[in-house]
Fold this protein.
Amino acid sequence: GDVEEDMRVRIAAILALRTMHGDCLSCLDALRRTLMEDSYDLVNPTLGVLKQMGQRAAPAVPDILRWLDETDPRLVDRTAQTLGAIRARPDLVLPALEAVILRRGSDDAARAMAAYGSPAFEYAARILSEGDEYARYSILWTFANLGEKAAPIVPELIVLIDGEDPDISSRAIGTLGFIGPKAAAAVPTLMKRLSYGETVQRAKDAAKTLMRLGPRAEEALLSGLQSSHETTRRQSLRVLTHFHVRTAFALDALGPLTRSKDARIRADAMDAVGAALFDPREPQKVYPAAEDPATIAKVRALLEAAVEDPEEPVRDRATRYLDWLNARH
């Protein structure tokens, strides 16, 4: 009975420290001693207090690390959360987090790793290269949220695009999109997915990401519109129309497509031509090119040439955009 009462008192004391919102540096030695005990009821709230202390709890990192080897996944995740909040001793913590992610996959361990910033990328890259699908998922989901800061792992992401697992490939493509223009090295590989995509979904993922990679992607799409391969031309055109790209940069390349033998390509080309000036979803929303006389003249010529097209879908789209243009100019 005395032992149980002592345990309840100790737990209550630890919980009370949490109300101090991390301002308990004088208790750090006592908290570290608590981590040496094999009691979930004591260790779990202790980790919560140390998490609140943040970097002030750095001396306790070696004591905290032992709990990453615990078999209880709840305690392992809580330990990872605490280490991510403290962000100290990357020389000790990052290899330990890598081992956890490789062993069982852990979003909490991946988030903790990401919290360390640039020192973490070496470990994340290795997990993407060597880990199983669960480990890779943990890194991909987490590091996507870092945006352009995750640029150091772009080479590993490019390799995963061509991997055998379509889900991992799609997630890697999505992560590149979150990184943005700093992932421009992926443009050639993504363009291949447009041309030879094994699945429709992977081609769509590649198209969506391309539109977030900046000028280099625009150059690649322009080249795609002029490709000798019909599939490449069609997919590049679909990227422009489906994702509502401002297409003024591509008008010269779109001209031949408005005269294609394939009516579907001609119809899509009308959407792409109109999108040089207008947002197809909101015609009242005009793009800066709508004030450029040279661009207006090119668009008008392409639309007027199509209003007599023998296919109704082509005529209708050309007429719609021409009406918008005439209403404004």
